[in-house]
Amino acid sequence: MLHIKELTLNIPDTTKPRVVIIGGGFGGINVARKLSGKEFQVVMFDRQNYHGFWPLLYQVATAGLEPDAIAEPLRKMFDEDYEDFHFRQVKVTGINPASKTVSTLVGDLPYDFVIIATGTKSNYFGNEQIKKYSFPLKQVPDALNLRSQLLQSFEQANMIKDPEVRQSLLNIVIVGGGPTGVELAGSLAEMRKHVLPNDYPGMDFSRMNIYLVEGLDRVLPPMSPESSATTKRYLEEVGINIKLNTLVESYDGEVVTFKGGEQIKTQTLIWAAGVSGAQVAGLPPEASERGRYLVNHFNQVIGFPDVFAIGDIAYMKTEKWPKGHPGVAQPAIQQGQHLAKNLRHIIRREPLEPFEYFDKGSLAIIGRNKAVADLPKNMHLKGFIAWMAWLFVHIYYLIGFRNKLIVLANWVYKFFTYENGTRLIIRPFLRKDDIAGQEFVRKQADLD
Amino acid sequence: MLHIKELTLNIPDTTKPRVVIIGGGFGGINVARKLSGKEFQVVMFDRQNYHGFWPLLYQVATAGLEPDAIAEPLRKMFDEDYEDFHFRQVKVTGINPASKTVSTLVGDLPYDFVIIATGTKSNYFGNEQIKKYSFPLKQVPDALNLRSQLLQSFEQANMIKDPEVRQSLLNIVIVGGGPTGVELAGSLAEMRKHVLPNDYPGMDFSRMNIYLVEGLDRVLPPMSPESSATTKRYLEEVGINIKLNTLVESYDGEVVTFKGGEQIKTQTLIWAAGVSGAQVAGLPPEASERGRYLVNHFNQVIGFPDVFAIGDIAYMKTEKWPKGHPGVAQPAIQQGQHLAKNLRHIIRREPLEPFEYFDKGSLAIIGRNKAVADLPKNMHLKGFIAWMAWLFVHIYYLIGFRNKLIVLANWVYKFFTYENGTRLIIRPFLRKDDIAGQEFVRKQADLD
Asked: Most buried among A138, A180, A200, A211, using CB within 10 Å?
């Protein structure tokens, strides 16, 4: 048996300054791309071997796309034009600023500069029961698992005796009214209308209820009140049950109880309610606030000039963004690109340039011709034009990301038709042994 | 928690004859398609919710294709034009000819005709150790698991200290020189030459050894000696180590020992050495021979006029095929179509027509411009023309199967370029806890 202790990082020695990037998300890949050249040795660590285009992850969960449409192997992204770039699929266990080393599962590596670009993880606010029974939507395996859960629920709803249990299979509760929750709800509504009635001719999908639960008083709280109001109307038009000002008290895998006492029986609770920074051990508590690293305008973690944080894990307080930048792709991309420039300044002993966020606006999609956009200068779009803007932006970024016209054509084709051909039930992990229906799944697979 | 006992099959009552089809493979879908109409109620059971184009499964294992390119949801295949067709994703536990019922995990169903189209499963010849440690290649999750294992091995080989352990990660042993083993070996050789050196610039892939082990004295034993000889030459040209007349004695997850005593250290043993019929409980032993159901020329199981078997699970002895038809897609497809005709004859009290297999020949691919074909009348093709024939046949069947030009274009594009974009490590099942590197995988995923 191969033990971890037999592994080593195997990074070549170098006389160039070594930049260690922790995380291959939007921030990590952009700083790595811009550092390409002869000046640095770049080492990237990630637990996964791929970069994900996470804004479309919900499409994997609703069987609209396969993982390869939204994820790209990191080794492939950095394979040819990137000299002295080294990827290792390994988990980072800590940073040691005193010795200037990064610790991983398989050994330590000295750094000259380390960039924390680890993003966020699901936040269950300490509720272990919810963590155990709910379905998160942060990673590719999560999306595949949720997809299997949804399809399996329909299969079982089609075979259940007790109407009350059937209803609990047909009740989908999404907790969290941010972009993930809203786009997932919209996509499930389209599935309910256009796909499922064909697949399950004997079933009455008017009984399928999609609940969207939000603790604040509006959906899409990071967007403008105008877009929130439009989104709420769109969601209601496609038949989503919205519960605002509602917090989850508990969920035991069968019944979700809200603060206030209301209950819904559901076998599928999707947790999109919050994230917290995926922090790395080794920096003192005063370097963080609310789970994010406090950084100056050069993305340096306060007190540690050789340690940088970018993207969702960074907390840069500016006059315009006193609570930090929004937790979306753009700040991560821009900070990554900007930091590469500043690292060059550092080794050339030039003055650093402060980061300034260029807000391109934000978008959310609910369904065909139903989208909202907040643009700079307080402009708001909705309806067909916002939908076209959403498509354009996503196609534009996917072109850069995938660089493959035919894959893109395939994506557009799948997106515009309702020919979702990917409704395959393939459980990626059976890690939740006691969730609904697992007895059935396990017996089907002869795993018992 | 939802228990199996709360489920029921929920098939509507009918006055039409009810045909129960067990299995949604090539045989099952073809009989179901041809039975479409007003004369029968058709019920199909399968443990998976999809039909797979298994001749291309090895492409999923070598990251050439994603599962959706080779698998199609059964509900989608039969969604619109098929009246009174009922699919249930449920495991069949037995047939009771006395009561004319089929038993499933969730209840029994009376039948008028039952068609066993369950195909084959991996045969480990009773060796539990090999079953535990080797990687099969029969199902979509198998292929995804093998893909992850291969990619993970390369990641680890890149980080290993001990050169001997590194070599055991770079030794891939395929047991079984039939079509699956040969095509997988060829595909791995292409990966080694065109893909891996770009992905792992620091690694020396001339050290990656691909062994193909066959118990008989030639590869592709079902094909002609001419094609076997050509295939052997092709495999050697692309650097496959072929071991003929070699049987596996044991494999403990680290070392494979052959009968005769030779040993190879490998972390990845792929088991493509044999299959046995996936039989269903309930028929007496005399209805079977070598794990397959003995059927007459109408595919009726001997002694049970209402029980039919088609495809790999059927053993029809004919003058031309005394050992039964070959275990490939064509006999299953043709028997399925033919049986539908005979079922109509039965209910119309017309005489039955005996099945006659139209042998279209067989094909295997080793690499670009390297393929072999045995055609009727003892004709053999090889090289570019056989390769074109292989492409044409697979494209032809995929068109019928997927009915989507753009998906097909995508497939052809991926096939012809080396732009395999699907090298994502997503373990579908962590069911082998003690195989090589699982400690690492589990710790990476925080599963411990």
From this structure: A180
Per-residue DSSP letter, A193:
I
Tokens of B104: 């499933």
Per-residue tens of pLDDT for chain A, all 448 residues: 567 788 899 999 999 999 999 999 999 999 999 997 789 999 999 988 999 988 889 988 998 877 887 888 899 888 777 889 999 999 999 999 999 999 998 899 999 999 999 999 999 999 999 988 899 999 888 898 898 889 989 998 999 889 999 999 999 999 999 999 999 999 999 999 988 998 898 899 999 999 999 999 999 998 999 999 999 999 999 999 999 999 999 999 899 999 999 999 999 999 999 899 999 999 999 999 999 999 999 999 999 999 999 999 999 999 999 999 998 999 999 999 999 999 999 999 999 999 999 998 899 999 888 999 999 888 999 999 998 888 888 877 776 665 555 556 666 666 666 555 567 666 544 434 444 445 555 566 555 4
Q: Are residues B343 and B207 in the same domain?
A: no
Q: Under DSSP, is residue B363 helix (H, G, I), strand (E, B) or coil?
A: strand
Last residue of a domain, one of B347, B376, B398: B347
Whole-number Å distance between alpha carbons of A96 and A261: 47
CA distance A250 to chain B (A): 16
Strand pairing category for B370-375 and B379-382:
antiparallel
Tell me which H or E stretch contains B60. Answer: helix B57-61
Distances (CA, A) of A352 to A19, A35, A130, A296, A349: 17, 16, 45, 11, 9
The last residue of one of the domains, among A315, A332, A347, is A347
- Residue B445 belongs to some domain of the structure: no
Task: State which residue of chain B sits closest to A87, comparing Cα positions.
Answer: B200
Between the CA atoms of B24, B26, B31 and B34, what dihedral angle is there, to the nearest 10 degrees? 110
CATH code, domain with B285: 3.50.50.60
Q: Please name the member of A75, A430, A445 whose beta carbon is closest to the beta carbon of B199.
A: A75
A47–B445 CB contact, under 8 Å: yes
The residue segments making up the domain with residue A133 are 128-273+418-439
Task: Compute the radius of gyration of chain A from its Cα atoms.
Answer: 23
Q: Which of A79, A88, A151 sits opposite B49 (nearest CB)?
A: A151
Q: Are A33 and A65 in contact (CB under 8 A)?
A: no
Would you call A359 helix, strand, or coil by DSSP?
coil
**Chain A nearest C-alpha distance from B207 (Å):** 18
Q: Annotated active-site positions of A, please? A: 183
Considering only CB atoms, which chain A residues are within 8 Å of B426? 67, 140-141, 144, 428
Contact list in A for residue B132 (CB cut-off 8 A) is none
Pair B269, B285 in one domain: no
Q: Which helix (H) or strand (E) covers residue A257, if one does? A: strand A255-258
Question: B201, A79: Cβ pair inside 8 Å?
Answer: yes
The reply to whether A242 and A314 lie within a common domain is no
Q: Pick A424's closest partner by Cβ from B68, B79, B86.
A: B68
In a shared domain, residues B266 and B283 = no
Chain A CB contacts of B402 under 8 Å are 421
DSSP state of A191: I
From the list A9, A165, A447, the residue facing B2 with the nearest CB is A165
Establish if B53 belongs to a structural domain.
no
- Residues in A closer than 8 angstroms to B82, CB to CB, are none
Instruction: Specify the number of domains making up chain B.
Output: 2
